[in-house]
Design a protein that fits this description.
Layout (H helix, E strand, L loop, with lengths): L2 H10 L3 E7 L5 E6 L1 H5 L2 H19 L7 E5 L4 H11 L2 E8 L2 E3 L11 E9 L3 H12 L3 E12 L11 E8 L9 H4 L19
Parallel strand pairs: 3-4, 3-6, 6-7, 7-8
Antiparallel strand pairs: 1-2, 4-5
Helix pairs in contact: 3-4
């Protein structure tokens, strides 16, 4: 799927939003890509997952098969599952517990297990970076990171020291709140992301 076709898919599914949005980084932007509105359609999610899996297999095949895909909850869970299916790998997810990424629900990672970290949208890369650090502490050999969307304001930069792949690199403005033109105009802010969600008790 070409970049323009994927962007068209986002637009048709209502996932290309314009307004005044608070990003996970704390910055504000007039543009937001809401992957959940695209991934709610299983056939589209499957198609995107296969394409990202194919890209990952080509990029990270040097050391052998990828054993496990790990994704930060909640945004990365669906695409992580679809990428894992495309790779013939296991799919697990990390969750934020009292502010820290953790493995719950009986998930474990074995020593030396080849792991790919997958997210829906990467901007500053905070969640996927924490997930990579978690997997590394568990003894994983993390081969790289991947996302549907890689949003950047200047030049695309890897969210970690590892290689990063993305189907949809998007240049979009982002402002510190003190310099935000939408704030100066008095426009109400929306925060559609999921990083504020946390878990402190087993579900």
């Amino acid at each position: 799927m070409a970049k323009r076709d994927l962007l068209k898919t986002f637009s048709e599914c209502g996932g290309l939003l314009q307004g005044h949005f608070g990003l996970t980084s704390g910055r504000h932007s007039p543009v937001y890509l809401q992957c959940a509105l695209v991934l709610q359609y299983p056939d589209i999610a499957r198609s995107i997952g296969i394409e990202l899996a194919d890209m990952a297999a080509e990029t990270f095949s040097g050391g052998g098969k990828i054993d496990t895909v790990i994704s930060p909850a909640v945004g990365g869970i669906i695409i992580g599952q679809e990428v894992a299916a495309g790779l013939g790998a296991r799919a697990i997810f990390s969750e934020r517990v009292d502010g820290e990424m953790s493995l719950r629900r009986g998930f474990t990672i074995g020593e030396g297990e080849r792991v790919l970290a997958v997210e829906d949208v990467v901007t500053t890369g905070g969640s996927i970076r924490e997930t990579v650090e978690l997997a590394t502490r568990c003894g994983a050999a993390v081969v790289g990171t991947a996302s549907i969307v890689h949003r950047y304001t200047e030049e695309p930069a890897n969210p970690t020291d590892l290689p990063h792949i993305s189907l949809l690199p998007v240049h979009a403005p982002a402002y510190d709140p003190a310099q935000c033109p939408m704030c100066r105009e008095g426009n109400p802010i929306e925060k559609p992301g999921s990083r504020h969600l946390s878990a402190s008790k087993p579900l």
